[in-house]
């Protein structure tokens, strides 16, 4: 294993908390772990209030005023925040030449399903109310945020709200039933997740709701009518198989679906972009997709 990938493995193996710890301890530990990752010096942040929910604009020199990337952070629906994912979300915005809006959606177990989806929808509606064209909005997220990306797209479609330009799902956790074969075949090589820990996170979020409810596990949802989606996953992830299933189902549903699997990469490897070349390449890959969507819907000379 090359040194940079080993460093990514160690980041998680050395810093992930025990899931026997309290919710507060887990959240503090995760915040401290992600604080080890740098944020670009040219990033400007502006806090915003979204009807009582904290949001943050992340603006870099490349950001265009009319383009928005709505970013939904990962963390098993139980932890994570604007701060933990600021480096990743802002660099994805840079790659998209967009302003990033990141939000602190409510977390389980205090606020279980469907509270995070409601908060994501509130943020999208707020953007529309601010005058942003849906054709200039892209939704992205990693892990649980990848789940929320798909669930939000489904919710937007189902409420007949104008659809955004598309979505980016990074290492998405979209099968809370953990039915995929890679929960077994990849557990020995995944340094981030275990089936036992994922089961605990799912129970915290679902609170008795079936894990096959489509908004809870978009892999089981009706994907017809969704905008273009790019799914990215590492080949060392226990969540690999659910991405493969989702992509197949999306293609059969007529969605413009793009997919890439990254050899040897771990869960949400993009967070390691400051030292891992494959993470930098992953962000640029997402940027190519997002720029294609923005430019298709908003010609450069307008």
Automatic annotation (TrEMBL):
| Protein name, as recorded | Alpha/beta hydrolase
Source species of the chain: Paenibacillus terreus
Organism taxonomic ancestry: Bacteria, Bacillati, Bacillota, Bacilli, Bacillales
Keyword annotations for this protein, in alphabetical order, are: Hydrolase
UniProt-listed SUPFAM superfamilies: alpha/beta-Hydrolases
Q: Name one GO molecular function term.
A: hydrolase activity
- Return the similarity comment: Belongs to the 'GDXG' lipolytic enzyme family.
All copies of the Alpha/beta hydrolase fold-3 domain together span 69-270
Family annotation (InterPro entries)? AB_hydrolase_3, AB_hydrolase_fold, GDXG_lipolytic_enzyme, Lipase_GDXG_HIS_AS, Lipase_GDXG_put_SER_AS
Regions annotated as coiled coil: none
Matching Gene3D superfamilies:
alpha/beta hydrolase
| Catalytic residues as annotated in Swiss-Prot or TrEMBL | 143
């Amino acid at each position: 294993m090359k040194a940079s990938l080993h460093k990514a493995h160690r980041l998680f193996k050395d810093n992930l908390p025990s899931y026997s710890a309290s919710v507060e301890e887990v959240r503090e530990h995760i915040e401290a772990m992600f604080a080890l990752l740098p944020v670009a010096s040219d990033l400007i942040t502006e806090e915003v209030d979204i009807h009582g929910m904290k949001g943050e604009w992340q603006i870099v020199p490349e950001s265009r005023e009319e383009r928005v990337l709505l970013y939904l952070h990962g963390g098993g629906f139980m932890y994570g925040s604007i701060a933990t994912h600021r480096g990743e979300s802002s660099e994805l915005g840079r790659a998209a030449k967009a302003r990033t809006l990141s939000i602190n959606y409510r977390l389980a177990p205090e606020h279980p399903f469907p509270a995070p989806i409601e908060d994501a929808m509130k943020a999208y509606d707020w953007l529309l109310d601010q005058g942003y064209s849906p054709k200039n909005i892209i939704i992205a997220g990693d892990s649980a945020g990848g789940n929320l990306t798909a669930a939000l797209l489904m919710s937007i479609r189902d409420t007949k709200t104008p659809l955004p330009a598309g979505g980016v799902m990074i290492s998405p956790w979209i099968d809370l039933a953990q039915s995929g074969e890679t929960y077994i075949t990849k557990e020995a090589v995944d340094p981030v997740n275990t089936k036992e820990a994922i089961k605990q996170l799912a129970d915290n979020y679902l609170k008795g709701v079936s894990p096959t409810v489509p908004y809870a596990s978009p892999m089981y949802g009706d994907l017809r009518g969704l905008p273009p989606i790019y799914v990215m996953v590492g080949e060392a992830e226990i969540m690999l198989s659910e991405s493969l299933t989702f992509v197949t189902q999306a293609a059969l549903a007529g969605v413009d679906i793009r997919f890439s699997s990254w050899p040897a990469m771990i869960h949400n490897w993009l967070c390691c972009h400051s030292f891992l070349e494959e993470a930098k390449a992953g962000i640029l890959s997402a940027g190519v997709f997002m720029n294609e969507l923005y430019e298709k819907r908003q010609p450069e000379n307008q």
